[in-house]
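Late entry, zinc ion complex.
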Amino acid sequence: MTKVSNFSPRPVNPADDAAIRAAIGQARHALATQDVPIGAVVLDPAGKIIGTGFNAREANNDPTAHAELLALRQAAAALGTWRLDGCTLAVTLEPCTMCAGAIVLARVPRLVFGAWDPKAGACGSIRDVVRDRRLNHSVEVVGGVRESECAALLDEFFAQHRKIGPDFGPAEGSE
Ligand code: ZN
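Prediction complete; structure with ligand written out below:
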């Protein structure tokens, strides 16, 4: 999570950059409830934000209240359909296995994320659910957008919580 995005192999699309900036804004809301700061937004085919979410596992006492799931649900409600054809999900951290599965189920064609998650990421790190050729839906993945900024948010959070007590740490607190 310490790689610098300036050395990304391809230039960042300005719309993707703006989407991750919006997701970072969402992530900051999680701090109010001591939730791990991860945020997500869903853009419709025209690029308008139709769903937002931030990690609310602690706030809601819900193990599935990940930013991505909340944003996908809001977007589906806004569109009036579970199929998010033509939409983009942007999230500050590489999605976990559950969220990657939800992205496939919602038929989201495009995923943009900030930091890689080498411990739990299921979009290229420990496995690749969204590009599994055995599934009949494949997702275009753009990782590492504003990577250092997204990673810094998490690093600061975990650094602060390590000072408070031993029960917090990236292995337990990250997705
Ligand atoms: Zn997740």
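The chain has six helices and five strands. Will revisit in the morning.
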